[in-house]
Amino acid sequence: MTCTLSELRSEIYVHPRERKGFDRTRVMQIPQHDLPDAVELLLTALEEGRYRCATPLQWLLQDQYLAQLLGRRLRFSQNQEPYFFLSFVLFEVSQDPQFLNDMKQSLLLADTNWEMTATALQHIANGILPDKIALINYCQQVLISSSNASLRKSALINILECKNLNPLKDGLSDRELLIIQNLHSPVRADKDWAVIELNKIIGTP
């Protein structure tokens, strides 16, 4: 029996505990006249960071999968979340380092509207590791360049984990939070202090 569009939509957005999984046989039997809507549903889900939808989308698009993702990505600016999410899927499929670089640049440009910065940074970390030095350097760049406070917090936590300086279970210490804040302070003395303190953390063996 074929998978209907309503069933496909339900599986995409259902609570994780209620997921049944995508059935390849049923997905591949979606009627030809419903294919554009099915592809649109799955592409939209990917743009929202629902990565499990990559597999059924690849079943449907087959040889056109990468081309469709690349074309879809052109709709978005590099500072938008969908651009990042589509770049991640492209990197996962191709392992082309250019897509990892696209992800890194996209996250650096993230504004305060991004909702999944911690997840996005973890995807980048997984792509960079086991090169801890490269990850620390990138996270340092995030701390200095990003306007997204939540992302800067995730970046410092990653640095602390790479340096085996275990962060607090509930987040960062008051000192560490002050470093994040003062790195973007308009007061030169505060900013200089934050840079010195960050370099102390990064310089810890």
Give a quick summary of the entry.
This protein has 205 residues and is mostly helical. The chain has helices spanning 5-13, 24-28, 35-47, 54-61, 65-73, 81-94, 97-108, 117-128, 132-145, 149-162, 174-182, 188-202.
Characterize the structure shown.
- The N and C termini lie far apart (59 Å).
- The longest helix has 15 residues, at 188-202.
- 30% of the residues are buried.
- The model has no long low-confidence stretch (mean pLDDT 90).
- This protein has 2 domains: 1-75, no CATH class; 77-205, no CATH class.
- It is built from 12 helices and no strands.
- The protein has 205 residues and is mainly alpha-helical.
SSE diagram, text form:
Layout: H1 5-13, H2 24-28, H3 35-47, H4 54-61, H5 65-73, H6 81-94, H7 97-108, H8 117-128, H9 132-145, H10 149-162, H11 174-182, H12 188-202
Helix pairs in contact: 1-3, 3-4, 5-6, 6-7, 7-8, 8-10, 9-10, 10-11, 11-12
